[in-house]
Amino acid sequence: MKKHRPPEMPQIEQLETELKREKYKRRYRSVLRSTVYTLITVAAMAVLAATLWLPVLRIYGSSMTPTLQEGEIVFSVKTDDFEPGDIVAFYYNNKILVKRVICGPGDWIDITEDGTVYVNSTAIDEPYLKEKALGDCNIELPYQVPDGKIFVMGDHRSTSVDSRNTSVGCVAQEQIVGKIIFRVWPLKQLGSVE
Hints:
Elements lengths: L11 H41 L3 E3 L14 E5 L9 E6 L2 E9 L4 E4 L5 E3 L2 E2 L19 E2 L4 E5 L17 E2 L3 E10 L5 E2 L2
Antiparallel strand pairs: 1-2, 2-11, 3-4, 3-11, 4-9, 5-6, 5-8, 6-7, 9-10, 11-12
């Protein structure tokens, strides 16, 4: 019959090593948990900021060429202050359209057959256009912009469907997503949008 030996008592060095290993595991878990919480918080803040203040949009279609091309990604900023020449994004039939502000509430707009735009009887300077066109216009000109609305047009006038057509019409403040301010993609065109 074999004798059972009592278990060996661990050495002090072994106990210290095991204690260090346990402390390291606890510290590692704590740092990992803290990092995950921080990343979740930062992601939530980024989503909140993007939703409330700086919506990020992707351009679809050609109505804003040459200023904005299909596939470009832009930042917009929430604001109530729009000037002629600003580019805005707005909701229309569950889509977001991007167009340029031409004039505001109470202004009179007239467009000639060759596409020259007059606001309050003065031809406006439009250096962003490659070509002028009357385009898809079924409103009666001259036209007065209703109170609380803005008149918008795309930069590619021959293809853009915008405030010149009653299907889109003038844009109300509550439809506006924001003013386009910055292009982030493609990287080679990174910069402000004008």
